[in-house]
Amino acid sequence: MELQMLAAHRYCRTSDSDPIRFYTLPLLGRLYRKRIARCLAMLPPGRRVLEIGYGSGVSFLSLGQKFDEIHGVDLHDRAGEVERTFARTGLKLRLRQGDITNLPFRDESVDAALAVSIHEHLPVDRQRTAFWEVHRVLRPGGAYVVGVPALNAMMAAAFRLLGFHIRDHHLSSERQVLAAMREVFEVDRTHYSPCSWPKPLTTYLCIRGRKPAGTQSEVSP
Predict the structure, then answer these.
(1) Domain for residue 83, yes or no?
(2) Does the residue 45 lie in any domain?
(3) Which site in 9, 79, 125, 221 is 20 to 30 Å from 16, CA atoms measured?
(4) Structural domain total, the chain
């Protein structure tokens, strides 16, 4: 699945740390697009999807090919500007400000959820709370797809070349995120990138978890 995007200059930068600037770079941009496409490929189609940490809306065009409604929540307060960016695309967007540990959505109100490069910014002790909150808003049988950058020496060195000290911002490793997700969801698929490399040297992990059919929504313990 290829990531469908608007022309890069049309996107609204929602913060100084918005990675939209990386998507047009020759090598790094291809890497960024590919990892989102991999996560999107894991999402089963449905009526309503929730993207947590949607940023500038890079995934929206591709999500629109699989879902009737796209709901989004992010910490920034520029939802209106992002919606205007996509005003002529025909997408049904419902964007709000909010936090992954306190989602402004009803129980069992979405068919699927997506979070790309979000969970690594949460401390380890908040991971289960976040996963239980997503579990609450998912319908039984729904899927949650998470993308997490790897936290290892090679990745830390690569980010240092960009002037970015990864360990100051990535508070949880991909292994810790996966372990927390398995406590809440039935993890039925994982994909390490590059897939041919040893796991300690991989750069990105995509995970899909399922909320079992017949499961009642729960409050985070």
Answers:
(1) yes
(2) yes
(3) 125
(4) 1
Q: Domain containing 108 — which CATH number?
A: 3.40.50.150
Q: Is 212 left (phi over 0), alpha (psi -120 to 50) or beta?
A: beta
116: containing domain: 22-144+152-210
Average pLDDT of the residues of the chain: 89
In a domain, 218, yes or no: no
pTM, two decimals, is 0.89
Q: Quick check: 52 and 105 in contact, CB under 8 A?
A: no
Beta strands in 81-203 (DSSP E): 93-97, 110-116, 138-149, 186-193
Residue with tokens 């979000």: 118
- First-to-last alpha carbon distance for the chain, in angstroms, is 37
pLDDT tens for residues 43-98?
999 999 999 999 999 999 999 999 999 999 999 999 999 999 999 999 999 999 99
Residue 3 contacts by C-beta under 8 Å, 6 or more apart in sequence? 33, 34, 36, 37, 40, 58, 59, 62
Contact 174, 148 (CB under 8 A): yes
